[in-house]
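Table S2 (text version). Query chain:
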Amino acid sequence: MVEPTSFSENTPAFLRVKGETAALMRSLNAANSPLGAPQHWPNSLRTIVSLMLASKFPMFVAWGPELAFIYNDAYAVILGNKHPHAMGARFEDIWREIWAEIGPLARRALAGEATWLEDLPLLMDRHGFEEQTYFTFSYSPARDDDGAIAGVFCACTETTEKVVGVQALRESEAKLRLATESAKIGTWDWDMRRVRGSWSKRTMEILGVEDGGEVTPERRNETLHPEDRVRVWQELAEAMSSGDDLISEYRILRPNGEVRWIASRGAIERDVDGLPLRSAGVVLDITDNKIAEAVLRESGAVAERERLWSLSQDMLARADYNGMMSAVSPAWTRILGWNEAELLSRGYAAFMHTEDAPPTLAAIAHMAATGKPTRFENRIATKDGGWKPIEWTVAPEPDGLNFIAVGRDLSHVKAREAELHAAQEALRQAQKMEAVGQLTGGIAHDFNNLLTGVIGSLDMMQRQITKGETSKIERYATTAMTSANRAAALTHRLLAFSRRQPLDPKSVDANRLVSGMEELLRRTIGEAISLKIVTAGGLWQTLCDPHQLESAILNLTINARDAMPEGGVLTIETCNAQLDDAYVARQRDVKPGQYICICVSDTGIGMTADTIEKAFEPFFTTKPIGQGTGLGLSMIYGFARQSEGYARIYSEVAQGTTVKLYLPRYYGELDGAEEDHGELTDDHRAAAGEAVLVIEDEAAVRDLVVDVLEELGYRAIEAADGPAGLAILQSKVRLDLLITDIGLPGLNGRQVVDAARQQRPDLKVLFMTGYAENAAVANGFLEPGMEMITKPFAVEALATRIRDMIEGS
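Corresponding structure-token output:
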């Protein structure tokens, strides 16, 4: 639909805005809508429509006896093919296929009862076919100028993607477990106090046993080769004493008499006094490698070598230190595609990736100098032009001239690792979105409350102006501004929680961060739970990703809320902490020093010692199926470790739980300090002749920025889209600063700037964005001479930023 660029004298002021739905409303009349022409609409309906058109949140109002349907641009996307014919039509006719579900809710609103629903499933037909959708929305009574209920107002959001994402989360969990089980690596677990253990199914297959019962020392001994039993138990005792990981290679004796070689690796968990509690690890059958190494070392018979080499799945070779191979196994051709003549006629370095050749040759040279075997990985060229990741074990021969190499193709292992990593990333993002999803219902409800403050205040201002009274206008304006700013804060908070990006550490004032989350946390826990925030005076700074810290606190708050179904007290405290050598000695991988501590405590059901022990493990959860992923606490622990900190749980059944998050003290300057803007002063005013170009497709925002510039004495030049702005930038007109929105039609803001800087390399640019500013900065979006301001912004903040940039400060 083509929107008019000018308006007639009869166009009401509230419809003199840009937008497709505003243009549709201007075209309504008695012939095509029960509402008739907008010139005759009541003031209360005009106020609601004005608010809707200025909002990016999907909204609609159904008004009058026919419940005529009016909506904004954001809601038009939800309508699909029903738009634009839905404008002014009857509510029931538009959504006839789901009227059985939403009709009763509309009738309740018309009776004076506000309702909201979270993730309501609706089978819609909006693109010519039925599709399953989910919505979180609130229906509220809409009143006319006399205070009588005249319609239904709705603010909504489509949550289909979130709900489908949670469903995909379940599938990702199953996929992750399947990939782990298919890795052909066995696992074991040993309780050192009970002197009992267990084996996984794959471990039992490796050992050749079928009984999956409890493992005792006697049963363990039966699987060990008699000659290796004493050594294996000695290695375990040494690891328990030293605190090192348990790494061992030994032989096993299967029940059928077969001898196999096993590589085992594990870690030992200790209690607060340093005593061993439990060990767990993995086992891998390495018999083929052992056979190949022994044969290559001990047998020089060509026939025997060829027979064994033909059976090996690994690449076997004999090579010299001058760079040539003298023998290769058939596995080389099967894995890489090169034939034997091609492999033996070229130096082995010629097959290595250029980045891997120097470290590989250095490792071979070190082996020649020390006479000891070594291991490394590199990439080897395939005949079809690709690369294969290979793990090498190389050992010198006694003659001092040659060495033996055993190469294992890691392609499947690397692919599996990539698949596991992708699944884990999807799970982390889904966990974050699940936390956001738990907020949406309350936020939709509270957002309507904030809109009520804005709508009501604007309505009262309109009535005051009509009566010619001005005494209360300032109070109403302040109320509307406060409610609008709170709504903006909610939007920014959701953007920060839901985005996907790597850790972006900054210096953080934890007191300010926790206090800034108070309103969000109160909304999350509900009225039955009392929230207490106790911040310590003189709290040190820390260095971490502030949004990840907010996410961690939110997850801990949700856990505490779920632990207090009947209500209780949630306390969040901050303090400085000194972790000395005595404390560190009882923990693993904790450095002594100064930390800040964020402590989240509840008076809920508490945890058993067994639950505390497993709480930080991925996928462990005590919640019912479908109500938790088991990733929340593991992500919090991972964030603390990545930030060089630590997390600890203290809990007693029926007494409550405390989670302490330790983050190291930071001695640098504090980032992101809040700017303190006052009133507009002469310091903000422009120098003679200074000109600023404003590119913004939203007319209301563009007009506001232009008004500020003109009030301060700048020459303001405006453009409504990227191509129009670029045309001005490529002219000879003087420009001291460019102010542009990032998301523009035609060309986006960054594309406009890149093109303009070809002629104006020193152009200073102030980007405007409605999204999280940190996401753009973290990805290297800003270059020298560029800054960013986040919508909504204060006029004083904008004026200060403009002056500072032009003066080069």
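Notes on Table S2: Residues 625-630, 673-677, 772-778 have pLDDT under 50 and may be disordered. The chain has five domains: 13-158, 181-285, 316-409, 503-674, 682-807.
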